[in-house]
Amino acid sequence: xxxxxxxxxxxxxLVGVALLALPLTALAHPDEADSSAGAASQAAxxxxxxxxxxxxxGGAVSGMIVNRSADVLREVxxxxxxDWQWKNEREPGEDSPARSTYVxxxxxxxxLGTLPFQFAPAPPLxxxxxxxxxxxxxxxxxxxxxxxxxxxxxxxxxxxxxxR
Length: 164
Hints:
The protein has two helices and eight strands; from the N terminus they run H-H-E-E-E-E-E-E-E-E. It is an alpha+beta fold and 164 residues long.
């Protein structure tokens, strides 16, 4: 009976320590505390998204960059990943062909507009029978350019500044 009592105390203490650690984990990684709700709200608040993404032969990818803001977006950089899934995960090979690359898109994405993109890896992805690629793409970074409107003084026919 005494051994069972000590075991129960240890289990209770362990549960108490685990419960105390939960808030610390949330403080250490606040962005991961509620990842599902946080990710959804973060995606909804971003002024940029990818649409109509299609992966083709050899790893080629195309799609549309959508600008949901009233500002111009430029220097859009995409992260393209080609993860490799082994046919036999218990005994994977030694030479995984997985790779990733950053692609900088040339051109500006107009305010509330779109810009098509396409990319083909060089060299193309190899065709193999010991597994398959799982491609993905995401926006890595971009520059948002905001143009402030300068009020005009209609009587002078020139622009005015707040500093005068």
